[in-house]
Design a protein that fits this description.
By secondary structure, the protein is mainly α. It is about 40% helix and about 5% strand.
Amino acid sequence: EYYHACEQIGGEYIRFLPGGKTCVNIMEIRPQVSATGELLENTGESDGMDAPLLARKISSLCAWLQLNMMDDKLSTAEKNRFSVLCTKLYANYGITSNNDSIWQDKKNRIVRPMPILEDLNDALKEDPELARIKDVLSPYMRNGMFSNFNGPTNVDLNNQFLVFDVDKTAINEDYLPAMMYIAFDCCYDLAKQSLKHKDAIFMDEVWLMMQNEDCAKQVKEMVKIIRG
């Protein structure tokens, strides 16, 4: 029903299924504008919505990992070590806390290639103190039930109408919030790419994500920015 309705208006229907073909790369950093509408790499501001894109992505990854850990909690020490590890990983791709570094060809608006979850998994092998996080990634690695999410994004995110179907009939309820978060993170990034057109984000069953404190903070931040 949703697929046909989306198809009729020329939208992009993106179905999240374990072992499917769809991939939205949770590791991707996308260009964003500041609260004033300027591209972040052109501003000197560094707080709120205008925080460095790399720092925001690492914070988002922590929230996503926490959802995958279910009842377990990342310690402050683990979060700090993970932040350092991610900073080094993105640096290998030429991406730093300088927002301008995300561009491979800024003039033509082409961003650099981004790491995928397998790159993160390989980096985690070098730090035994983060073994718990590495274990959490196992369902997303080769032969894992969500291995299709271990790669570059392969859907059209430029469409003006996107529908993310996180199929709870096919996804184990333990992983449903993490799958929902991938869609949320992507939509939120896309909405922040421009203030020149109106965006609407509709989230169904969002309480499943917001049971986690870190994830609830991300959703709260989005609502505050939209309200502002």
